[in-house]
């Protein structure tokens, strides 16, 4: 998969999310036109970040998504939205500030050495100033990991995704990790070239990714809030992205992984929003006390969870197969931890959500029927896009093109 296809998929997802926001807002969503423009600006910034090159330029674009993203998080204007928007802004800016310092150190040191990285890799002993490159790489990679939402700077992820309008959560979760991942890739590649046999910044990112996945499983078991549980799914996948980044995959494979993130996160949050709005509650214990629920919406959300983990033919299923294939080729057997932890996470998720099917089926309430039907249609289109992408990836993998 090339960037043109990735951009096309991203544009289609953005269009469907924006359509849901414009045509099916909730009563609390005001100034739709203004926030719709902000959503477009936010998306264009992320698109630019993964299409343009240059350490400094990518950093500026990603920092701009922090400011626009904070505004979008506050768009619901609830008592919780403003503190969460500040948390989003502060933690992300903190991480990006560290990343910026690392970028300056790496760029300045490489300029002073005046050798391509490929040449420098064979002459490290002749350049004691390479220590500054190593320090810069640690700062850049750790700083960007905060924006990616990895441990220990992951606390903004659940609050942001759990308390924002579902369309905003879908937008941020779908596009921000992709933009950050493309900014991280050059540093990971440089780290592997310069320090292939020692513990380095890329290895630190690997550990943070695994810890994030483990933490999300523990936190999921303790949660009974539908919004927060879906946010934990996004957090788990952010941890997995850290491992995919460490593997330094070929461009075509990496583009496919990123496309999967875009379509999957969007359908997860939009379908979750339908179930929550239909139920009128977000805590599972309160939903269980209801006599009925719309099972079309619940089925779509549950099917999206299957796509997010174990359903054969889904992009995540293909990603796991590709990861195992690359791990086999490189002798990195530990990558099997990703599908194993995914199965564990999914088991906990099913344990909590499947009992909802014991409730009786009913249509949407008349008050929200039109809004929810529009959202359901958009989510179904996204679901089909996810499934189509997974089948496409599985076919090309079987053809040996990945």
TrEMBL record:
- Which Pfam family, any one of them, does this sequence belong to? Proton_antipo_M
Which compartments is it annotated to reside in?
Answer: Cell membrane; Membrane
Q: Which residues form the NADH:quinone oxidoreductase/Mrp antiporter transmembrane domain?
A: 59-338
The transmembrane segments are 6-25, 32-50, 56-76, 88-111, 131-156, 168-184, 204-222, 229-247, 253-277, 298-318, 330-351, 372-395
Q: How does it sit in the membrane?
A: Multi-pass membrane protein
> What name goes with this protein?
Formate hydrogenase
InterPro entries cross-referenced by the UniProt entry: ComplexI-like_HydComp (IPR052175), ND/Mrp_TM (IPR001750)
Q: Which GO terms describe its cellular component?
A: plasma membrane
Q: Which keywords label this protein? A: Cell membrane, Membrane, Oxidoreductase, Transmembrane, Transmembrane helix
Query: Would the keyword Transmembrane turn up in this protein's UniProt record?
Result: yes
Q: Name one GO molecular function term.
A: oxidoreductase activity
């Amino acid at each position: 998969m090339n960037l043109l296809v990735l951009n096309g998929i991203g544009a289609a997802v953005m269009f469907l999310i924006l359509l849901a926001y414009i045509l099916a807002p909730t009563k609390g969503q005001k100034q739709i036109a203004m926030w719709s423009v902000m959503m477009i600006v936010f998306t264009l910034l992320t698109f630019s970040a993964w299409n343009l090159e240059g350490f400094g330029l990518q950093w500026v674009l990603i920092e701009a998504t922090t400011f626009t993203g904070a505004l979008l998080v506050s768009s619901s204007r609830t008592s919780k939205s403003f503190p969460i928007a500040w948390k989003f802004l502060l933690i992300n800016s903190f991480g990006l500030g560290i990343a910026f310092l690392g970028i300056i150190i790496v760029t300045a040191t490489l300029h002073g050495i005046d050798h391509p990285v490929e040449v420098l890799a064979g002459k490290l002993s002749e350049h004691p100033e390479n220590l500054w490159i190593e320090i810069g790489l640690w700062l850049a990679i750790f700083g960007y990991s905060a924006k990616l939402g990895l441990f220990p700077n992951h606390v903004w992820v659940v609050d942001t995704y759990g308390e924002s309008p579902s369309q905003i959560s879908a937008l941020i979760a779908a596009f921000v990790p992709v933009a950050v991942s493309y900014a991280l890739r050059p540093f990971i590649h440089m780290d592997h070239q310069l320090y292939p046999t020692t513990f380095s910044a890329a290895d630190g990112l690997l550990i943070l990714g695994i810890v994030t996945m483990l933490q999300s499983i523990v936190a999921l078991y303790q949660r009974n809030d539908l919004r927060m549980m879906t946010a934990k799914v996004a957090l788990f996948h952010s941890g997995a992205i850290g491992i995919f980044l460490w593997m330094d995959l070929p461009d075509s494979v990496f583009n496919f992984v990123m496309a999967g993130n875009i379509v999957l996160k969007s359908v997860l949050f939009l379908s979750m929003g339908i179930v929550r709005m239909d139920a009128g509650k977000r805590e599972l214990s309160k939903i269980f006390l209801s006599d009925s629920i719309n099972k079309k919406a619940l089925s779509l959300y549950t099917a999206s969870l299957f796509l997010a983990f174990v359903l054969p033919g889904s992009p995540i299923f293909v990603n796991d197969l590709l990861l195992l294939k690359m791990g086999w080729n490189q002798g990195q057997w530990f990558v099997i931890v990703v599908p194993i932890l995914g199965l564990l996470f999914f088991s906990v998720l099913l344990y909590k959500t499947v009992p909802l099917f014991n409730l009786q089926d009913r249509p949407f309430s008349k008050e929200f029927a039109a809004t929810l039907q529009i959202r359901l249609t958009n989510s179904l289109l996204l679901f089909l896009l996810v499934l189509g992408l997974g089948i496409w990836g599985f076919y090309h993998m079987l053809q040996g093109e990945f």
